Amino acid sequence: MRFDPAEHPRGRTDHGGGVLARTGNPFRFPTEAAFAAYTGTAPVEIASADQSRHRLSRLGDRTLNGCVHDGGVRAKPGSPGNEGHAYYRRKLDEGKTPREAQRCLKRQVTKTLWRTMRRDERCRLRASGSSPDGVPISVPG
């Protein structure tokens, strides 16, 4: 899944800078679940009587959560051609409520952000001759 800011219904918005500024080094999160917990998009199980459901965590960086919300969830309703909207519709078709589908979409956006930030940081470090753990990369030659 990929979010293209140009597809945003209110025009181009730049949340990438906010995400990078709030996150820092993406390698400090060993898993995408750890990053989701940090952003507040990790699901929390709630149970009542015979029903078991999930909701989004109220913990985590609320500003970063807002960037995820603006970047992924707000693009969903007005952009039937984008991947986020297709994912949201698929979740609704699976029987999820609109709120549950939105929670799932936020989690998918968070996964994509984490993977993209790690990939980009790896490329940046390779270009500079370093590695994610700070050990210089030896180039055979």
From TrEMBL:
Residues 19-75 form the Transposase IS116/IS110/IS902 C-terminal domain. It holds the Pfam family Transposase_20. GO terms for biological process: DNA transposition. It comes from the Bacteria. GO terms for molecular function: DNA binding; transposase activity. Residues 1-15 have a biased composition (Basic and acidic residues). Residues 1-25 are annotated as: Disordered. This is IS110 family transposase.
